[in-house]
Amino acid sequence: MAEVWDVPRLWDGGMCFIIGGGPSMPRQFGIPESVIRDVMSWKVRPDAYSEYLRPIHDKHIIGVNNVYQIGTWIDALFFGDSSWYLVHRQALAKWPGLKVSCNPRFSNRHGKELEGVRYIPKDKTKRHGISNNPCVISWNGNSGAAAINLAVHMGVKQIALLGFDMDLDSEGISHWHGQHNRSSTSFKKRKVPSFTRHLMGFEPIANDAQKLGVEILNISVDSKITQFKKVTLNEVLGNS
Length: 240
Prior knowledge:
The chain is α/β, with parallel strands linked by helices and 240 residues long. The protein contains 7 helices and 8 strands; from the N terminus they run E-H-E-E-H-E-E-H-E-H-H-H-E-E-H.
C-alpha cells in the first residue's frame, strides 16, 4: 500500500502566491529585460531573479516546476511530469523546501517517503476543479492548475497567480526560464505547450473556489485565463 500524503492545513485562513512558468512573471517585478534574456538563454541562473522578487520573500509561496531554481525562500514546489523530474532530480535533492508531486513514481510501496517528495495522487473521480479530499488532487491537465488544489488543501482563502499566462509572449516565448533544460532531448523535442488543453480546468476550478470561499486573483493582464479577477502585483501586496 503506497503512502499518501494527507495535506496539512499549513496556511489555514491565509493567502499564498503560486508561481508558474509564464513569461509575464519576471516582468511583474520590473526585472530588466537584459536579465530576463540572460536567464532564458542560460547565461545566468534563474536565481538572478531572486533579489527582484524580494517583495514576496516573506509570503507563502508554491512554485511550479523550475520555480525552485529561483531560491530557497520558495516554501513548496509542485510538479507532475516524470520527464521533468528526471532532469532536475539531483538539484532537487539539495533543495530544502517542501516537494510535492502527483506522479505515481513517488507512490512508494514500502510506505516510506521517496526521494524527499510527498506524494498526493490524482483524483480519478474528479479530474477537473478542486477536490475536497486532502489525500488526492484534481490534476486539471497541468501542474500549475493542480497546484491551486494543493493551496486549497493547505487552507488558504486567497490565491494570487503569477506567470499563469497560458500563452506565448510577443516574441513567441512560453516560459520565463527558456527551455526546461538545454541538455534534455525529451524537452527539446516538445512543441509549444497545449494551452487549449491546459485551459480546460480553470472554469471548474473557479466554480469550486467560489463554493469553498476561496478568492483566486490573476497577476497577468494578458493571461488567457478569464475566470479570475486580473489585478496588479501592487494591488495584491497592498491587500495581503
